[in-house]
Amino acid sequence: MPPTVPAVPLPPHLAHWQLPVGWSWGTESLQEDHRHFQEVVDALGRSLSLVSAPNPAHVDWLHAEARALAHRNHPAIPTTYHYWAPALRESRRGPGYLRRWIAGETLAQRVGRLGADDVPGALRLLREAGSAIGYLHDGGSVHGAVGGRNTWLTPSGRIWILGWQWAIPRDRVPSGLSPDAAVVPRPPEWRGGRWSPTPASDQWQLGALAFLALTGEVPPSEDVPPVRLLRPDCPRSLADVIERALGADPAERYSSVTALVRALDRGVSVRTPLLGGPDVTGEVVAQTPEARLRWATGDDYDILAKLGAGTFGSVWRVRDLALGREVALKMLHPHIARDGAAVQRFRREAQLAAQLAHPAIVPIFDFDTRAGTSWYTMELAEGGSVAELVRRAGPRPLRDVAGQVEFVLEGLAAAHAIGVIHRDLKPENLLIDRYRRWRVADFGIANALGEEVAGASGTPAFAPPEQLLGEPQGPASDCFSIAAIVFFVLTGEPPFRGNDGPTVLASQLAGRVDLARLPAPVAGWLRTGLAVDQDARPADAAATLGAWRGVRTAALRGEQRGRWWRRLLRAVRPG
Q1: Omega within 30 of 0 (cis) for the link into 289
Q2: How far apart are CA 299 and CA 566, in angstroms?
Q3: Residue 314: which pLDDT band, with cuts at 50, 70 and 90?
Q4: Where are the beta strands (DSSP E) in 198-357?
Q5: In whole angstroms, what is the distance from residue 476 CA to residue 495 CA?
Q6: Beta strands 373-379 and 364-370: pairing type?
Q7: Residue 181: how many CB atoms within 10 A of its CB?
Q8: Residues taking part in catalysis
């Protein structure tokens, strides 16, 4: 498929566009509140967002928005990379501007999917969003459209504030337009449906954002119920800050959003108490994993958010204070860190991954042990994991993932080439970076060829039969897991059902996997990759990669032919 042919139908106002050479249309788009957001992939393989206005009369408004964002610099505010002026005869593109593509979901979507957030999560949201709005106010501007559908959360826990078409001088917004009431909560002073943004109304909307995160509900404009009535576990000091921001009289709110954030920091500390009581050995220990991590890392890292936890450890988004960058930190659970052998295995995991210099493998930065805590840091995957992607967005079409599977296989081939077997490939261990690339992580039970690699291990739903049986494993074992992951991504479920290893193994040995719903070339590739006998599978990732490239070409050609045939039928038989 030529790189500038869209993979999805474009809206009419983009139909005439011709992207630069080497660029391509992405597969995701969103239209909301007078703006259209279309994913594009530049010549360097980066996913960007093309922001445009469906209404041609809004060109000046769009340009004002792009210009304003180009001069803002805050971690929660996306910056304009480039602006394409209204279409010229020779360029065939514009008007529109480029910024980074933000993967994830809105706060409203997250609350609808998972329910209300915990108190630390809501506290971080209020502080980070408050920092962005305070920054805006310090520059003499107001936002006017802060809400749960304009606040995005990435899988890595980062917060982005959107809706910037409203955060420009009022005389640049077309007459008669205002934010959709379904998107933006209305402060009590906006009576009669009028839109009159001020720093005080931004503060009320910020309080409404925190109320939504804590309770799962958007507060009413008047008679807002007490926060602790709906969330008894919310600290009184935090509830007081939110309730003052939601006050009916703007004069009774904080003097500024910056004052609100300062009051929050004085009254509610995101740094939980460091020390608790003595443990059974008489040693004074930290009360929580976060407190223990803060105690151990001292002034080296600022702990920002917890990303997840597993059997052996937890992963955190942190800021490396020496280098001024955000990274992911993986820490062993305290009870496991007391086992010297477990710490050595953990160190070995970091060492193995650090040896694998390939773009499809998440790089490891350093390893350290301090105050009874062991951790290593690695590049932060802003897009979360493939497992989270499927949970959030459902099964993915082949055209979306074919190139990513190839990229992962290239990285796995590099590992196999130096004799490293992963042995725990699963959707949770394929992480997505800011450019939408899938990358292999977590070499916790990896082994080098020539070492003893028998023993039951891995995650049953994606582990090959020989691993579940505790038999010797080789590169073909990783190939089985990759095939299982591809099946999961295309269908939304693992290839073999079961809640435990024996049940999954029985399903594998019986050959109970439904491939009929997949394209024939893909089904054939999966049938070979999921073979019970190791010798019937490709020998290693390089062989699997070669076969996948042939499958990808055949399947996508068939898909394109099918779309052409359907268009022809519609043309000759309208309706």
Answers
A1: no
A2: 62
A3: confident
A4: 301-309, 313-320, 325-332
A5: 17
A6: antiparallel
A7: 12
A8: 424
Lowest mean pLDDT among 143-147, 262-266, 321-325, 514-518: 321-325
Rounded distance, CA 342 to CA 330, Å? 14
CA 207 to chain centre: 25
Structure-block tokens of residue 46 = 């980066």
pLDDT at 344: 85
Query: How far apart are the two ends of the chain, measured CA to CA in Å?
Result: 28
Residue type for position 126? L
DSSP state of 58: G
* Cα 515 to Cα 523: distance, rounded to the nearest angstrom: 5
Residue type, 427: P
The three-state secondary structure class of 252 is helix
pLDDT digits (tens, 9 = 90+) for 271-302: 444 444 444 444 444 457 777 788 888 778 88
* Residue type for position 527: R
Instruction: Please choose, from the candidates 400, 390, 409, 384, the residue with its C-alpha nearest in 3D space to the C-alpha of residue 491.
Output: 390
If you average pLDDT over residues 38-44, what whole number do you get?
91
Q: How many CB atoms lie within 10 A of CB 497?
A: 13
Nearest C-alpha neighbor of 273 from the set 235, 321, 308, 316: 235
CA–CA separation, 313 and 331 (whole Å):
5
Residues in the chain: 575
DSSP, collapsed to helix, strand or coil, labels residue 356 as coil
Which of 437, 333, 422 is CA-nearest to residue 379? 437
Name the range with the highest mean pLDDT among 313-327, 341-355, 530-544: 530-544
Tokens representing 330 are 């993986």
What is the signed CA dihedral for 115, 118, 121, 123, rounded to 10 degrees? Answer: 120
Q: How many CB atoms lie within 10 A of CB 233?
A: 8
- For residue 74, which phi and psi values (nearest 5 degrees)? -150, 145
Please count the CA atoms within 13 angstroms of the CA of 197 that sit on its side-chain side.
25
CA distances (Å), 226 to each of 197, 202, 215, 234, in order? 25, 20, 11, 11
Tell me which H or E stretch contains 41. Answer: strand 35-41
Nearest in space to 453 (alpha carbons), one of 463, 461, 462: 463
| For range 513-540, the mean pLDDT | 92
Tell me if 301 sits within 8 A of 291, measured CB to CB.
no
Q: Is the pLDDT of residue 364 over 80?
A: yes
User: Please, are residues 195 and 184 in contact by the beta-carbon 8 Å criterion?
Assistant: no
Q: What is the three-state SS of 5-32?
A: CCCCCCCHHHCCCCCCCCCEEEEEEEEE
pTM comes to: 0.72
Distance, in Å, from the CA atom of 39 to the CA atom of 36, rounded to the nearest integer, reads: 10
